Amino acid sequence: MNAPASTRKKLPTPVKATVISIAVVVVLVIAAIVYVNVTRPAPVTPDDGALPGTRSDSHVLDEAGADAPTLVEFLDFECEACGAFYPYIEEIREQYAGDINYVVRYFPIPNHYNSMHAAVAVEAAAQQGRFEEMYDRMFETQIEWGEGQSSEAARFRGYAEELGLDMDAYDAAVADPQTQARVEEDFLEGQEMGVTGTPTFFLDGVKLELTSLTDLTDALDRAIAD
Fold it and tell me: Which of 7, 12, 32, 168 could cross-link to 16 by cystine, CB 3.0-4.6 Å?
């Protein structure tokens, strides 16, 4: 039986609260900017996944079953706000392990030079069953390559080598237009769902509006209690 919401450990610590406070502000600013710059999405072929807000090929990092609440995050690996939220989300995943499904979807912001390169690299790793390791690597190193104006594809290939991937298969996946098309499917469907910035969260298919630090955990607690 799930623990009542009132007994759950509350996040974050004072230091983390400061970081996430800044991240929330950045998210709101980025959302406004992206809303101006993204174009009207093209229709996406329906491909509903088993969990709300997902496609059949979505990357499910934590699975608690179809009856558990499903948290979907649309993210951009180059987005500073996503990077700031990353450790917070990792703590939430640990705190709610076994109680929620957590799913990652791509939303590479067009004016981030390496966001698509990063997403393609992660998707290429995913084809070898190593999505989460590359996902972690991107956020752990974001400060080293984010906001650059030249391709970081070679750096990302180096990450793949460090993970011990089959490099022939990795290179083939990166070169395959279908790999980028897979990323673009998420982006286009995200636009259709109302995503205008990153990170954007959906809980059981409903977009969350985060205006305070506890909005996300409060929403999860309510969903679990229900």
Answer: 12
pTM of the model: 0.83
Q: How many domains does the chain have?
A: 1
Per-residue tokens: 212 = 């305070």
pLDDT of 16 above 90: no
Q: Would you say 20 and 85 are in contact if contact means Cβ atoms under 8 Å apart?
A: yes
**Rounded to an integer, what distance in angstroms lies between the CA atom of residue 172 and that of residue 7?**
49
The helix-helix angle for 131-140 and 115-126 (nearest 10°) equals 150
C-alpha separations of 6 from 16, 18, 167, 211 in Å: 21, 23, 48, 21
Q: Residue 52 CB: number of other CB atoms within 10 A?
A: 17
Q: What is the mean pLDDT of the chain?
A: 86
Beta bridge partners of 73: 104, 201
Q: Residue 4's pLDDT band (boundaries 50, 70, 90)?
A: very low
Q: Which residues pair with 17 in a beta bridge?
A: none
Alpha-carbon dihedral angle through residues 88, 126, 27, 17, given to the nearest 10 degrees: 10
Question: CA–CA separation, 207 vs 127, rounded Å?
Answer: 28
Which DSSP state fits 124? H
Nearest-10 crossing angle of helices 167-175, 153-162: 150
- Domain hosting 130: range is 5-225
Provide the 8-state DSSP code for 48: B
At 55, which CATH number? 3.40.30.10
Q: Letter for the amino acid at 4?
A: P
Tell me the pLDDT tens digit for each residue of 75-121.
Answer: 999 999 999 999 999 999 999 999 999 999 999 999 999 999 999 99
